[in-house]
From TrEMBL, chain A:
Pfam families: TusA. It comes from the Bacteria. InterPro entries: TusA-like, TusA-like_sf. It comes from Paenibacillus physcomitrellae. Residues 6-74 form the UPF0033 domain. This is Oxidoreductase.
From TrEMBL, chain B:
It comes from Paenibacillus physcomitrellae. It is found in: Cell inner membrane. InterPro entries: Sulf_transp_TsuA/YedE. It is a multi-pass membrane protein. This is UPF0394 inner membrane protein YeeE. The lineage of its organism: Bacteria, Bacillati, Bacillota, Bacilli, Bacillales. The keyword ATP-binding does not apply.
Length: 75, 355
């Protein structure tokens, strides 16, 4: 298992999700992607996409004002 | 005057608060109907329209408010709504979205807002007001759908309610994977208001109720309309540059209230932060704002004025504008999100083949 980091701080929706999808494509099953983002609407769109795709969220929290981190394990 | 300031600010603040907490983004909703085949936000909009429709026709019947549907300037509505639809994708939010995201500290939205207000003022009282006048000469005499068919508006309200209920229930019954939640850090009211995720349909019900509330509050100050964003945004700028108090009406305080409400919501939920876009995004946002101001002025409304309010008034303008606006967002989404990505994939494939 390996972990990759993706920072989309400063990017507005829907780009955080588009970038996340591309980064996930490059990963192997069981690998984790840590995404740091500050687009408020991505707090909805990224978890929704993750759930719909069947990946697992292993960590999801707000780390600062308008800054969140989410870790997704690829199915 | 004082009543206008207070009720306008309160109504706007409620709207800004609810939209910020509920992530009520019509641009994203219209875009995702095409990009991810997700219609949930569109159904949420239908819920808000249906609730407002029941509310305003009940208020009309009770004699509390009056409104006239006017004429249907179909050419201006179609051209304007299409340009508006393109603009909101470039700006990263519709007119209302831009106001409330400005309250979250997004500098990109401030830039879009500046373009939007300026262009709306140029179109309404400035050098481009002639375009609007000449295009609105192309119109049909009646704008009201019930009048066209010669039957009571309640038939259309009932039809809308049934259709909305059908889609909403079907959406709610869909099997769903459990949604990952943020770690809860607060409890009680603070959790419900400033942390918990709001269901889009719940947010839509609140938006619909606020839209109903806007009618009597606005009419009490002599402005016979419901929620509106474009004309008030232009009015605000017109007042700021020439000091003419006749531009100050209930709508001006409504849009200022949106900014205020969204700021309070974002600050209290730790979602306020100044976020600056890069140069490229700034230019796109500004261009989007200009297109929004041009389109909404021509069409006589934005996603709220036409898409939420005129639709609830059961006018041709509202429903035609809504459909064309959605087509505009799909067109822009293709050029902004779909085409660049597929070209990137093609280039990558070509490079691989060459190697």
């Amino acid at each position: 298992m390996s972990q990759q980091k993706l920072s989309v701080i400063g990017q507005v929706c829907p780009f955080p999700l588009i970038e996340a999808k591309e980064a996930m494509n490059a990963l192997n099953s069981g690998d984790e992607l840590i995404i740091d983002f500050d687009c408020t609407q991505a707090t909805e769109s990224i978890p929704e996409w993750t759930a719909a795709e069947g990946h697992t969220v292993t960590n999801y929290e707000q780390i600062d004002d308008a800054t969140w981190t989410i870790t997704i394990r690829k199915k | 005057m004082l009543q206008m300031v207070i009720t306008g600010l309160i109504c706007g603040a409620l709207l800004g608060f609810v939209m910020q907490r509920g992530r009520f983004c019509l641009t994203g909703g219209f875009r995702d109907m095409y990009l991810t085949k997700n219609n949930r936000m569109f159904y949420a909009l239908l819920i808000a329209i249906a609730i407002q429709a029941v509310g305003i026709f009940a208020l009309v019947e009770a004699g509390v408010i009056t409104f006239s549907a006017g004429s249907f300037n179909w050419l201006a509505v179609i051209v304007g709504s299409y340009v508006f639809g393109i603009g909101i994708v470039l700006a990263g939010g519709c007119a209302t979205g831009t106001w409330y995201r400005a309250g979250e500290g997004l500098i990109g939205s401030w830039i879009a807002l500046a373009g939007y207000m300026t262009m709306a003022a140029i179109m309404k009282t400035g050098p481009l007001s002639g375009i609007q006048k000449s295009m609105t000469e192309v119109h049909t005499s009646t704008n009201s759908i019930p009048d066209t068919f010669g039957i009571s508006a309640w038939y259309f309200v009932a039809l809308l309610a049934v259709v909305t209920l059908f889609f909403a229930v079907r959406e709610l019954l869909k099997p769903k994977a459990a949604l990952p939640k943020l770690k809860q850090k607060r409890s009680g009211l603070a959790h419900l208001l400033f942390e918990k995720r709001w269901h889009p349909f719940f947010t839509a019900i609140l938006v619909g109720l606020i839209a109903v509330l806007a009618w009597p509050l606005s009419e009490a100050t002599g402005r016979k309309a419901g929620l509106g964003i474009t004309t008030p945004s232009a009015n605000l700028l017109q007042y700021l540059v020439n000091g003419d108090q006749s531009f100050l009406n209930w709508g001006v305080f409504l849009v200022l209230g949106i900014l205020l409400g969204s700021f309070v919501a974002a600050k209290a939920s730790r979602e306020f932060k100044f976020r600056a876009p890069d140069a490229r995004t700034s230019v796109t946002s500004f261009a989007g704002g200009i297109a929004m101001g041009f389109g909404a002025s021509l069409a006589g409304g934005c996603s709220i004025g036409n898409g939420l309010v005129q639709t609830a008034m059961m006018t041709w303008q509202g429903w035609v504008a809504l459909a064309v606006m959605i087509l505009g967002t799909w067109t822009a989404s293709y050029f902004v999100y779909v085409r660049p990505r597929s070209q990137k994939t093609k280039t990558a494939a070509a490079v691989k083949a060459a190697v």
